[in-house]
Amino acid sequence: MTDLIDCIKYIQDGRKTLPAGGAKTYQAREQAVKKLSEAIIRDLPKARISERWDGAKVSILGVRASSTGGIDGTLTNWITAARRQLDKTGFISSSGEKENVR
After folding, report:
1. How far apart are CA 68 and CA 56, in angstroms?
2. CA 19 to chain centroid
3. What is d(CA 44, CA 6) in angstroms, rounded to the nearest whole number?
4. How many helices (H) and strands (E) does the chain have?
5. Residues 6 or more apart from 23 whose CB is under 8 A from it?
C-alpha cells in the first residue's frame, strides 16, 4: 500500500469499524481507536502517530494533520488534508481515471 488513495481508504474502512461515540461507549471507542492507530503504524508506509496531553499528530506519506481532539479527530483531519493534496495534484489513479475518495 504505497499511494495516498490506498491510505485514505484504509483509514476510512478502519474508522467504519469503530463503536459509536457517547458516554456509554467511550472506553470501547478509545480502545478501538488505539488498535486502529497501531494498525496504521504497522501497515501504512512512513506512518507516524503521536499523542500528548494537548492533542495528537499524524503523518502519512508526507501529509500531516493534528487535532486537540485526540487520534480520532486527527485521523479525520488527515483524511481531509490528504484529499486536499490529491485535489492539488489532480491525482490520476493507475487505471487512468480520477479516483473518488469522498
Report:
1. 6
2. 16
3. 9
4. 3, 3
5. none
C-alpha cell at 50: 503521536
Q: Which residues contact 19 (CB under 8 A, 6 or more apart)?
A: 25, 28, 29, 32
Residue 40 identity:
I
pTM, two decimal places: 0.82
**45 contact partners, CB below 8 Å, separation of at least 6:** 1, 2, 7, 60, 61
Instruction: Quote the cell numbers at residue 87.
Output: 485535489
Give pLDDT tens digits for 48-77.
999 999 999 999 999 999 999 899 999 999
C-alpha cell recorded at residue 27: 472506553
Q: Dump the DSSP string for 59-97.
A: EETTEEEEETTHHHHHHHHHHHHHHHHHHHHT---TTSS
Q: What are residue 57's DSSP bridge partners? A: 50, 66
